[in-house]
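dude i think i finally got it to work??
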Amino acid sequence: MDTRTDAAIPRPVRAGPEMDALGRFLQDVTWKGVIHEGGMGPGTPAMTGIGHSTSHTIQDGRWIVMDSEQEQFLEDGTFVLQWQLHWVSGWDPGHGEYRAVMADNYGHAITWRNEMTAPDGSWFLIEEYTMVPRQP
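look at this
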């Protein structure tokens, strides 16, 4: 190939150390826990949640894709619902920040958490919000 032409062709961004820092999210996991009374909104009962997530990378390690499901039960064992989530996250070198997009079967996120790394590599919480449908 002509090197003048080859140099002019834009190349995909390569994964860098910022993606290595997201490695803790690249896991297949399971969980079981409690959803406290009111945790799904005012007046909702306490529930048990049992779930799992699978994760993999796409585009030569540029993005992490996570698919999650959780079944929720009343304290007496009655099935209530199944929650599903599809999450994609990665480093955006053009903006110098992490980016993520998610879609769940409720069409929204219940809680938003924004965390950041400190110079020593530890993570700390910047903000946390409970999201609710907008009232007309």
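The chain has a mean pLDDT of 85.
im so relieved honestly
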